[in-house]
Design brief:
It contains 10 helices and 8 strands. With 480 residues, the chain is of the alpha+beta class. The protein is elongated and about 170 Å long. Belongs to the outer membrane factor (OMF) (TC 1.B.17) family.
Length: 480
Amino acid sequence: MKKTILIGLLLFGFLAQAQNKKWTLKECVEHALENNISVKQSELDVDLANVDKLTAKGNFVPTINANSGVAENTGLSFNPVTNNAQTTTFLSVTGRINVGYTLFDGLRNYRQLQRADLSKLASQYRLDKMKDDISLFVANGYLQVLLNKANLEVLKSQNEVTQAQIERTQQLVDAGSLPRGDLLEIKATDASEQQSIINAENGVRISLISLAQLLLIKDYENFDIEDEGYDIVDEGISDKDISEILAKAKETRSEIKIAEQNVELAKKDLQIAKGANYPTLSAFFGYDTRYTDATSFTQQIDPDNPVITRQIGTVEGTGQAVIGQFPNTFPVETSVEPFIDQLYQNDGIAYGFQLNIPILNGFSTKGNIQRTKINLERTRFQLEQAELDLESTVYQAYVDAKGALKSYEAAKLAVESQELAYNYARERYDVGLTNAFDFSQSKLRFDNANIELNRAKYDYIFKLKVLELYFGIPATELKF
């Protein structure tokens, strides 16, 4: 009984710990990279590229095929061993092994293997880009939750001040120091803040659900994130020149690597297409054998009368007959040879070379070469466009990060100013030198300044990390 209770307590403690788990940003990113469907599909593309490479390697291996057949013939048929026509019923077995090997095919097999390596590399780059994109999506969703939580804390904190002011105002109204309208004004402010708190709580819950859906986590009720320990961590990227960031981006970003690999693939496709203009030389070897249970006939000489005489012609002019002697034979049915013996007796081999020279094939080879040339030019344009797009994106990210930093610094100054104004207004209100409406307006401006500071902070964090990502820092190594 005690053991059962102990196990129950341990299980309850484990479930409670699991329900209270708070996910860090690193855990969210790692979970997304392991479970996201888009990432899994990109990983399948890498696996498929490995299969293509295996197939390309197989082109260098001889082809070996074996076949056999069993048939029963009734009526007039040709004996597969003697090739004589027989009217009977017999069973026949045939077997064959063929070996083929391509000696030269215009280097197309070699080019296909090279192309498979390039395709595998391109698939890996696409997987890397997908992981970077997913990591950014997760980071953005995570920071959105942090922003909503921070705003909620601001609203709750300020509402606590409002609650204290209600008590203070109630005392002053009861003492006759303040009119009852001030109390009503403060209570109206409290009601508005309570509504804002409810909306903020809904915003936190919705952003948590969105993040959980991105992570493919179904337990929405118990999903939560670690909301402490995240601040602005600048690895020095904001002090770097835009040209340095752009050069690093062109060197490391998967978008450029993918476009470059597509150009290399197009070049390889062109080489493969041109290989169809060359002759193909292949070698072959074949072995076959056969068996039948049909009886056959052999000719034997009559021992009693071994020679017969026949006229084979006449002498021209005299008409004298020309006589010849021939063996006197008669057919004798022979017994069926054993299965194994027939396999050895009736086997045969064939080997040699085969040369195919392309001469005219309806311009299909020429047309294919032209198509691959056009595709090569298209991939070169795509590479150029990818470089332009990356340059534009990096410049935009750089400007956004710089602008977000200025916005964050301005928001901090605004909070400091609004805090001073709010404290001054509270002091005046406490001594009755200002009314509740003016005080609530000052407090509202202070609340909005804090909310704007939170927004500017997390917006700057995200845009700073985007810039670091373009500088070549892996998504899993970004620091917050």
